[in-house]
Amino acid sequence: MADQVKISKKDRLSVWWRSTFIQGSWNYERMQNGGWAYSLIPVLKKLYTTKEDRAAALKRHLEFFNCHPYMASPILGVTMALEEDRANGADIDDVAIQGVKVGMMGPLAGIGDPVFWFTVKPIIGAVAASLAYAGNIMGPILYFVAWNVIRMAFMWYSQEFGYKAGSKITDDMSGGLLKDVTKGASILGMFILGALIDRWVVVKFTPVVSTTKLQKGAYIDWSSLPSGLTGVKEALIQQKDGLSLTMHQVTTLQDNLDLLIPGLAGLLLTFLCMWLLRKKVSPIIQILGLFVIGVGFHYLGIM
Amino acid sequence: MQLNAIQIILVVLVSFLAGMEGILDEFHFHQPVIACTLIGLVTGHLIPCVILGGTLQMVALGWANIGAAVAPDVALASVASSIILVLGGDFDAKGINSAFAVAIPLAVAGLLLTILVRTISTGIVHIMDRAAEQGSFRKIEMWQYIAICLQGLRIAIPAAMILAVGAGPVKALLHMMPKTLTDGLAIGGGMVVAVGYAMVINMMASREVWPFFAIGFVLAAIDKLTLIGLGAIGLSLALIYLKLEKSGGSGSGSGDSGAGGSNTGDPVGDIIDNY
């Protein structure tokens, strides 16, 4: 067959680059449809030459589409393969192409969200943020490089995979590998979330529960220290030995809570937010509410 | 402080970039740790802006655009708060804290702008429909670029407005805030992180993965473990679990939903639900 039209690697690279902009015209009616059609244009241009064919192809790809933006890449790959077969005379109708798109976008979005938004991003973000928090310029650089290398590599290889697997990919979806990746990501994600809640949700209660007078010898007796720098040295040595700086031991509510397990209040707050979310309380309201509580409690001296 | 013309142009450009990325979610120029750094870079106050970015990033870790839902807008929050930090001229911890405090209301305001632009885009795809009927690739491309530019302007215009108002009013506004308010907002900032994490947990939780959450929580209390160390432990646990599950044969776990958002088989979730 002499007149076979083939999609070249250059076309596929072009689609890969364009799919970076897939969410550009995100809208409430058909979501990523504009970006989807925009991404496929290099392929459609090559495959179809008459005005009627081109119009039909564009209309076909302006249908509803919404997926995780990176997970759209394997679907683009499969769709390219289907369009290529169709342009070369295979019997693939509009319904089949739309069916593949819709059939894949749900499950794949279900993988993309936990893997990228809830595992890769919090981990890279937390490392970068803690560096940046200390004023280290490596924080932002690390985030930018790591995120984009992972993203671009994933998008290219999954699009190639989709193109090669063609319509067979839907079978692979039910296969073991992707399921393992999803499960592994949610295990790692939950583990890291637990750690992040302990480290970064800061809830501190300031009320003093008890003030006990310490025994003599348990605190630094400032009046009996030698004067001058030797006195400072002596005080520091005594403090290192575990002596208290004051005569009283102050126990705050926070100290008591920390004895149970550090970060408990933060954990309970997170559970409260989960409960509120399930009761359909908007996250925005929760965020504003927590600020109001922060200011209010601080004013009252509780936090 | 006052910015010169070139700096102003660069700040607006960075804002435009952040606005585009706010919807594209690809290069992540809108993430606080990057957007604040870029503003710091072009205005010559790199390190305070990096610190502000790190602080904001911590809050925004769990925010994600899922499906049709939009998270609070980090693009406007990071760009505007770092411009305010630079204009305000206070680069100590207090200055960074008060810039951080204004960032959150800005994130909510940015959300409204996002919704507005997404509604305008609905009109744009109807224009694309007509272009499709004519088989015109060029017009569809053009409207895609216009839609992206609108998202850029969504942040660039407010940024330019803050620059136009100038340092004086911004500074006055920041100084008007009483100390109880700024301190209280900082305390609130420590807590709002929980909302993002709660959203994520609601998506991922299942009976199978709750124990890993508990292990992570308890291990994090050991101060000597860095996040990278914790990541290595978590990754190893996941690999071990997957391996054991396979060799375990009968696959008792295979009936559970893995991730993917279903809340069935999530005991803690059920308790929370029924409470």
Automatic annotation (TrEMBL), chain A:
Keyword Cell wall biogenesis/degradation listed: no
Keyword field contains Transmembrane helix: yes
Record-linked Pfam families: EIID-AGA (PF03613)
Matches recorded under PROSITE patterns: PTS_EIID
Keyword field: Membrane, Transmembrane, Transmembrane helix
Transmembrane segments annotated in the record for this chain: 177-197, 259-277, 284-302
InterPro entries in the cross-refs: GatZ_KbaZ_carbometab (IPR050303), PTS_IID_man (IPR004704)
Protein name: PTS mannose/fructose/sorbose transporter family subunit IID
Organism of origin: Companilactobacillus mishanensis
Top-level taxonomy: Bacteria, Bacillati, Bacillota, Bacilli, Lactobacillales
UniProtKB/TrEMBL annotation, chain B:
Keyword set, alphabetical order: Cell membrane, Membrane, Phosphotransferase system, Sugar transport, Transmembrane, Transmembrane helix, Transport
Chief subcellular location: membrane
Pfam family, one: EII-Sor
Residue intervals passing through the bilayer: 6-24, 36-60, 66-87, 99-125, 145-168, 180-200, 212-242
The UniProt record lists the keyword Transport: yes
Membrane topology: Multi-pass membrane protein
InterPro entries to which the protein is assigned, alphabetical: GatZ_KbaZ_carbometab, PTS_IIC_man
Keyword Cell membrane: yes
Location within or outside the cell: Cell membrane
Name of the protein described by the UniProt record: PTS mannose/fructose/sorbose transporter subunit IIC
